[in-house]
Design goal:
The protein is 41% helix and 10% strand. The protein has 14 helices and 10 strands. The strands form 3 sheets. It has a 4-stranded mixed sheet with strand order 3-1-2-4. The chain has a 4-stranded mixed sheet with strand order 7-6-5-8. It is flat, with a radius of gyration of 22 Å. The structure holds zinc ion. Zinc ion binds next to loops.
Length: 356
């Protein structure tokens, strides 16, 4: 069963709006009768008015109403205006929504900017530009005329198109003929949103979005695969979304999506050992080091573990310290514990939280 999160730890996480606790506990405000996620942007009540719950259901049963700002009943924490903007961009990738347009709708451009940077690793303008240009990528890849690509992505001039293309994908259009790109999507999970990336060969990125600066992460992925990073989907990402949902619902124990994980020979040996740890079991860093025939390389094993780009899929969460402690986890230790509990227990996952 899930381990209990001490009240002091929940108080601290709530105080800091720590996204790595999203989904792991909820809190009710006695004076208003409203319950929230730990990351709620609303003003903080006095601690004595706060009551903690392990699940949204427990807060509802206790008579609390869901907060309209952090929307604790929705798996995704996307505010309604952001969901609307995304729908609009998907419907018409060529549409341009300026700061003035946002203001006219009563949406603060600064809020949009911060939300997109945090959630998508790029500004809203960069996001829509990438969506607009992804059609051009396909055309160039298929050997289409540059003129057509320029026109169809809504640019009036070649130079404007070239600048936007290079700024967005890190490669001028003339040099982009290799035909590879990394598609990135954002997937929902009970532990907060995950960012997933895939090449034509398979999944190459899966991380909790608060793990590190996404912008830097995308730059690293672009360099590693020598390919532009484009918001969008492909068949591997579609399969992953279905498999992840089944994993969290506990109806899937082994993923079948193909994985792509370039690295040094040593890192690949470590990652392949991680892939060999059965669902519901754990190993120590020492055992992994022995398994690859390098019993003295425990620290290097730990480092390779930490550099895993495929959270959950390459199950680095199944590695513990020698004395059974959690050790480290890029996504936060509470998430590691949640994943281990999910895989170990037979019943539904209900993270316990202690009530004051
Ligand atoms: Zn709230």
């Amino acid at each position: 069963m899930n381990s209990m999160i001490p009240t002091t730890e929940m108080e601290q996480a709530y105080l800091e709006r720590d996204g790595s606790y999203d989904g792991l506990f909820f809190l009710g405000v006695r004076t208003t009768g409203i319950f929230c996620r730990p990351t709620c942007p609303a003003r903080k009540p006095l601690p004595k008015h706060v009551e903690y719950f392990p699940t949204a259901r427990a807060a509802l049963v206790a008579g609390y109403r869901p907060c309209k700002r952090c929307r604790p009943l929705e798996v995704d924490d996307q505010p309604p205006w952001a969901a609307d903007l995304l729908t609009e961009v998907e419907r018409d990738p060529l549409s341009r929504i300026t700061d003035g347009d946002l203001r006219a709708r009563g949406i603060d451009p600064g809020t949009v900017r911060r939300h997109f940077l945090r959630r998508y690793g790029m500004t809203f303008q960069a996001f829509t530009r990438a969506r607009r240009l992804s059609g051009a990528l396909n055309q160039i890849r298929e050997g289409g005329a540059l003129d057509t690509a320029v026109f169809e992505s809504g640019y009036d001039s070649h130079s404007g198109f070239r600048d936007a293309f290079a700024r967005t994908f890190g490669t001028p259009p003339g040099r982009y003929r290799k035909g590879e790109c990394v598609a990135v999507s954002w997937l929902r999970s009970p532990l907060g949103p995950l960012v997933a990336g895939a090449t034509a060969e398979g999944i190459c990125l899966l991380e909790f979005t608060d793990r590190r600066m996404l912008g830097a992460e995308f730059a690293a992925v672009r360099k590693l695969f020598d390919a532009p990073v484009v918001p969008g989907s492909n068949t591997h990402l579609e399969s992953l979304e279905v498999e992840l949902a089944s994993y969290f619902a506990r109806s899937l124990r082994a993923f079948s999506v193909p994985l792509v994980y370039p690295g040094t020979a040593f890192q690949r040996r470590v990652w392949e050992q991680l892939l060999a740890i059965p669902y519901g079991e754990t190993r120590s860093y020492e055992q992994i080091a022995c398994a690859i025939g390098e019993p003295r390389a425990v620290r290097a094993v730990g480092r390779a573990n930490g550099l895993n780009r495929l959270a959950i899929l390459i199950p680095c969460h199944r590695v513990l310290t020698k004395d059974g402690k959690l050790g480290g986890y890029g996504g936060g230790l509470r998430r590691k514990q949640y994943l281990l509990d999910l895989e170990r227990s037979g019943g539904p996952v209900v993270p316990k939280a202690s009530n004051p």
